[in-house]
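Assess this:
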Amino acid sequence: MTSSFGSVIAALAIVILAASSASAAEAREAESPSIRKLIERVEAAKPVEVDAIVSGFIQENQDGLPLIEDSLVTFVYHGTVALRATVPSDINRWDTAVHQMHRLGETDLHYLTLAMPADARIDYKFYVDGLWMLDPLNEQTVRGGFGDNSAFAMPLYEPPAEIEFVDSIPHGALEEHLFNSKIIVGARKVQVYLPPGYRPLRHVEAPWKEGGGNQNVKGEFAGTYPVVFVQDGGEYVTLASMVNVLDNMIHQESIPPVVAVFVPPVDRNYEYFLNADYERVLLEEILPFIEETYDISGDPGKRGIMGASLGGAISMMLSMNHPEVFGKCGSQSGAFGVNEMALIQRVLSEDRKDIAVYLDCGTFGDITDENRAMADALKKKKYDFVYAEFNEGHSWGNWRAHIDDMLVFFWGK
């Protein structure tokens, strides 16, 4: 297990806990030494030699595209372009109108070189003559909320080993429950992760009965396991590999055995937009069911709630409204600008709540300024919190790599 178990500390050495005048990261266009040499070769060649030179360049770099040269990344598209080819990505918030590729002379090779931080990891696609496509020359992909994306990482990026399935270790179980909500009317699914070796304990009563002897009576759960409630639960399972993260971290004893409740939204934008009805669904319907069914702790310090983007915002609202229920809150790229930054204003104007807060976000195309503002507000009110930025985007490829950091902050040994 490598990668991000300690990356919060590393990130905090770079990004200290406050909003600042610094802007989010930018990638500036640059010149690739390899492309410069290729251009020189093409310009010096005879016309009949050009196609072979271009094909040779593609062949030579077929296992390494996009081309990474120290702090430079070069995207390469080999094909006909009638109008233009661009590279929408985490870097530019998936804007198809910017980062246009350059044609190499009269050839069918198109390229774009950008200077990047040495530890960046980015999702991207090509947009060629109005058509979206994966990079045909790059086999590396990552699943996103709108399908697969091509991806690349700079030399100092550390891949998150904890998201991988390890066959040789014990694995938890994922149980699924369906119910009909009476508050936000409709069918709803909840998945519950039970850690390896999960064994519910109960306080057992043994009352006297006529004729002597004891009769065991089913008692209340003992409150054994920490629990985390996860917004966008389906995506945290399928796109963020959170079950693998839990299995690996529990096996490594980085965290104690934890129960996780994955709650997919039915109408995401409606429910997560600081919606009081969704708050009731979670507190009045889902939470009581989980308490009746599983041996989870009632200690707010052992109860967490988490989510990404709008899911991070609604998690923050729930923990602020109910610190007696959720003593740990985790937000990844939290959408704290909703309702004119209402949550940030609440942090500043209200008494400090007894909650510990984990925040992280990307520096490329993410809502970085809002997250810096929230971190600054938490610092001013002397909250127990941690804030980290990573040179990635507003994407599951970013969020999945830092679930372990959040869980260590919640309950790490």
